[in-house]
Amino acid sequence: MRDLYRCLDEYPLPFLRAIADVFAVRLADDDARETVTRLAEAMLAPEALGRALAALSPEAKAALAEVARQGGAVPSHRLALTHGPIRRLGPARLEREQPWLNPENALEELYFRGLVYRAYGSLGEYFGEVFLIPQQLLERLPSPNSYAVPTQPTVAESPQEIQSDGSACVEDILGILVRLRRNRVRLADEEAGGPPSEVIRQSDLQARLLGEWEPERLAFLWRLLWRLGLVERKDDLVRPSLRAREWLRLTDAERQRRAFAAWRDDSVWDELEWVPSLQCEETPGRSVSIAVRKQLLDALKGWPTDGWYTLESFVVELKQHHPDYLRPHGDLTNWYVRDRSTGEYLSGLGSWDKIEGALARHVLSRPLRWLGAVELGFDPAMQGPAVFRVTESGQHLLAARRAEGELKPQRRAPLATVAEDLTVRISLLNSMHERYQLERFAEWRSQDIGPYSPPEEWVATYCITDESVWQGQNSGIKIEQILRFLERISGGAVPAHAQRQLLAWGGRLGRASIRRTVLLQTTDADTMQQIAARPELAALLGESLTPTTCLVEESNVEALIEHLKAMGIWPRLVH
Question: Does residue 245 lie within any of the structural domains?
Answer without folding.
Answer: yes
